[in-house]
UniProtKB/TrEMBL annotation:
InterPro entries: Desiccation-related_membrane (IPR052928), YtxH (IPR024623)
Organism: Listeria newyorkensis
Biased composition (Basic and acidic residues): 127-156, 163-175
Keywords of the record: Membrane, Transmembrane, Transmembrane helix
Pfam family, one: YtxH
Protein name: YtxH domain-containing protein
Region (Disordered): 123-175
Transmembrane spans: 12-31
Length: 175
C-alpha cells in the first residue's frame, strides 16, 4: 500500500536498511582505527543493525497486519455493497418482469378481444349481406314478375289493337 507521500512502505524499509548498512560500512572503512577497534566497532554496528532490522521487521509485520485488516474491511464492505447492488438489481428486474408480463397479457387480451370482435362483425356483416341479398333477390323477382305481367298485358293490348286495326282495315277495303 502507498503512504501519504506515495512511497511504498516496503521500498522505504529496504532503502533505509541498505542506506544504514552502506553508511555504517563506509564510516567504519574510512575511520582511522586499529583492526581490533575496527572489529569491535563492526560488531557493535552489526548488533545495532540487527536490532534495527528486528525493529523494522516488527514494524513491517505490524503494518502488514494493519494493511491486511484494512484490505479485509474494504473487501467486506465491497462484498456487502455488491450484494446490496445485486439485491436491488434482482428486485428491479423482477419488477420489470412483472410489468412486462402484465403488459404482454393486456396486449394479448386486447388482441384476442379485437380478433373476436372482428370475427363477430364479419359474421354479422355476412348475415346482413345474406339477408339484404335475399331481400334484393325477392325484390328483383317481384319486379321481374311485374314486368312480365306488364309485358303480357301490353302484348295483349297490342294484339287487340293490331287485330282491331286489321279488322278496320279489312272493313275499309271491302267498302
Amino acid at each position: 500500500m502507498s503512504g501519504k507521500d506515495g512511497i511504498n512502505v516496503k521500498d522505504f524499509l529496504i532503502g533505509g536498511l541498505i542506506g544504514g548498512i552502506v553508511g555504517s560500512v563506509t564510516a567504519l572503512l574510512l575511520a582511522p582505527k586499529s583492526g581490533k577497534e575496527l572489529r569491535g566497532d563492526l560488531n557493535e554496528h552489526v548488533e545495532v543493525v540487527k536490532e534495527k532490522g528486528a525493529q523494522w521487521k516488527d514494524v513491517a509485520y505490524e503494518k502488514g497486519i494493519e494493511i491486511g485488516n484494512v484490505a479485509k474491511d474494504k473487501k467486506d464492505a465491497l462484498v456487502d455493497s455488491a450484494s446490496d447492488f445485486v439485491g436491488v438489481v434482482k428486485d428491479k428486474s423482477g419488477q420489470l418482469y412483472e410489468t412486462v408480463s402484465k403488459q404482454t397479457k393486456t396486449v394479448k387480451d386486447t388482441a384476442v378481444a379485437g380478433v373476436e370482435a372482428t370475427k363477430q362483425a364479419a359474421q354479422k356483416a355476412g348475415e346482413t349481406f345474406k339477408s339484404e341479398a335475399k331481400d334484393a333477390g325477392a325484390d328483383v323477382k317481384k319486379a321481374a314478375d311485374k314486368s312480365k305481367e306488364e309485358v303480357e298485358e301490353a302484348s295483349k293490348t297490342a294484339k287487340h289493337k293490331t287485330e282491331k286495326i286489321v279488322d278496320d282495315a279489312k272493313k275499309e277495303l271491302k267498302k
